[in-house]
């Protein structure tokens, strides 16, 4: 132990004597360890860390093979018949609720859940209680649970909040509790929770609105639970063939269902950080080799005095460990900063974003990583230097007489360049993919367009009619709102729709084509359904290709009509003119519906994002299918943000309890749609630039060392008549060979790993020749630039001075 402590003391003194070397090595390791640790914190928070629920490993999501969701009646049957689950619970998608009764109306996001959910998760409110089974019935449970965030914002963290009432969508709800800080389930967006209040009898089996979760019993395995639920699904398929044919059930671990779609992206980023760390390690290893070469006489003297090979290796490894330890401490500091930057850059739809922190697991990872890197970059230089030619070293009279360049140094440089090429190719492909993504025609315009949504309370505007049926109060509200907004100075167009592009809202419906045989697969193929106002297409820049758009005369008492997109026409009316054809649409296969005549065809729109292929869509006059939720698009002559106060006043003038929500420009919506690719691109580009810098520094260091070691040789060549350009070529040729070897190696590896990038790219080949050729050229120029300064120094050597120094 004393010997090891002495090694550390000696290593510390040695590093203090060479502060430049120590600073460069520590900074290099800190960057590599900091970047890798930051990315690991994201991977850990999203993919690895157990969910914060009781026995979370037993929680699963029950997904039908048709959809990820299920019908209310299927949920009821699964819960009643399954013997493999301790508890089964259900939720609906996050939706919004209008909050009134205060100074100004507000819109909050909420989730309807079954009473069994919170006990299944093992989560209790921080104050109050959760729902009872009796309250989980339609018309009974007018109760609500608040999030800690909403409790603070709306009620100032008042301790007497339990028992108070709040008005949600014009209905009075009793507050029965506040959930713990940071709680979220399947979505971090919900600010309150209500009973699901499912009246199973009036919801058909074709309405796939429910998300169903279960907790497997302790004595039941996942395969056994899968067999149990599959048997129930087969029985339901036999009982209800018209709705359940082909509707199997798949059990997915809850963590995978929440975060599984992020796995490929995060693993690619983690691998990228690992490559950056390898580059840092090879760079420091090269520095250690150069330093060991400069200390060869010292090592030879120690060997001559009886030091064993292991003793020399131990001493050099102690110095490496000391560098690694200091680099790890600095890297942890960088990891905290990098982690904050990553969270700021991350798209909003990354699950468990609030759980990304540098915690004890991440600290342990950083410590282990530091120890491993210390061994990784220290072992080879230590072994290389531990067996010196003692006689040669002690008899050496000049610095250049017996020195030779290490093949290990060359190998390290080649590895650095190869890894830098690998990262740079990935960043180049992502850049090319992102540029193509931005240049995709989305089918609509984002210029000077404001969007916002309104949600009309069901009790106030429905008049007890079925959703979609004509309602005078709802129709009058939208008519007044559209007319009022159109009169605001600076507004050049206004339209409304049930689902704006990039809003992540899709209303899928079954499609029936008149004349198609009943029961054929084509009949049960679906399309997205959207209600639109008269001026909607013009406002967002869509084009009517055939026929006409929606007219003011397309009212509830007129002939039912629809406008379809090109994708719909190509799929359902291939080779024929779709105009004047008739279709039906429904939420379930056997739902009654009226025939609607196709009166127009519009261009395709990429509703879910620039990287999404257009799908069949149907646009119907909103007056013929009234919906409570609508999103407005307002085109302005100037900055769209300037009209927000006027829009809010216009809506409040019609209904002073109605807030506007999701106020964003179309530019902002488009930016959010490409946030994921931009996030990956930012990280890959940053890492590739650091990798290129480290590789260039590594090559520069080796070439500088070569020139210094061969100083006498260069002097002799010059004295014998060699021209400066001959010496310049000699050194540049050596650097070019190392650069070419690294580029060739990196090219082969990048082609082998090209398939890994495919899932992250849009309309870009992972072996795109132009991108790869450009990256090769950039790295080749960087390599030659790194060699030029040492070569120029060698060409300018003064032979007389160099010989005298020798």
Please explain how this structure is put together.
With 806 residues, the protein is an alpha+beta fold. It is 49% helix and 16% strand. It has 25 helices and 22 strands. Strands 3-4-9-6-8-7 form a six-stranded mixed β-barrel. Strands 14-15-20-17-19-18 form a six-stranded mixed beta barrel. Strands 2-10-1-11 form a four-stranded antiparallel sheet. Helix 14 runs antiparallel to helix 21 (675-709) and helix 14 (407-438) packs across helix 24 (769-795). The longest helix has 37 residues, at 309-345. The radius of gyration is 34 Å and the shape is elongated. Residues 397-405 and 801-805 have low confidence and may be disordered.
Question: How would you summarize this macromolecular structure in one to three sentences?
Answer:
This protein is α+β, with helices and mostly antiparallel strands and 806 residues long. Helices cover 49% and strands 16% of the residues.
